[in-house]
Design goal:
This protein has two domains: 31-129, Alpha Horseshoe (Serine Threonine Protein Phosphatase 5, Tetratricopeptide repeat); 130-172. Helices cover 77% and strands 0% of the residues. The chain has helices spanning 6-28, 32-44, 48-60, 64-76, 80-92, 96-108, 116-128, 132-144, 153-171.
């Protein structure tokens, strides 16, 4: 390399390294919501390992939506005890996905003692927060007469319409 170009090349390397460090620092300081959004993008692109690492980071910071989403993935992987613990943390913060997830686990007895009454109470909390999956689950319970509820096709239809309307609003 020409001796006159060495200082320029050295300066460019230093500047490039500096920008890489700045970008890495910015990524490391992302807030839990940003980490959760990036995790969802990673998950959609098929990168489960990155998605779970980012969700874990946000969940460890106490971010309820990340706790509930990570619990969803852990439940699917049959890591029920950890899923229940994360759903519970999210539910205690009033997160409807956490309430709904914990309710599902309590209905089935996965990772926690079966408790249909507590499951129904959690499900109703998530429904009151207008969480569409919970509304759909309550509609199924009314249609089937499960979870200690009487069969009520009219209530099931009303709830199904409500969930459909909420999903339509979200997709706009």
């Amino acid at each position: 390399m020409n001796l006159q170009l060495r200082p320029i090349a050295s300066g460019l390397r230093a500047a490039t390294c500096g920008w890489v460090l700045v970008l890495c620092a910015a990524a490391a300081q992302a807030d839990p919501q940003q980490d959760t959004e990036r995790a969802e993008a990673s998950f959609r692109s098929g990168d489960l390992i990155t998605a779970m690492a980012m969700l874990r980071k946000a969940a460890d910071q106490g971010y309820a939506p990340a706790q509930a989403r990570l619990a969803d993935l852990l439940d699917a992987a049959e890591q029920d005890a950890e899923a229940v613990a994360l759903y519970r943390k999210a539910a205690e913060q009033g997160d409807p996905a956490g309430e709904y997830g914990l309710s599902r686990m309590m209905v089935s007895g996965e990772g926690v003692a079966r408790d249909p009454q507590q499951a129904l109470a959690l499900l109703r909390k998530a429904v009151a927060r207008l969480y569409a999956p919970a509304i759909e689950a309550l509609a199924r319970a009314h249609r089937a007469g499960s979870m200690g509820l009487p069969r009520d096709p009219q209530e099931a239809a009303r709830l199904e319409a409500q969930a459909k309307s909420l999903r339509a609003q979200v997709s706009r």
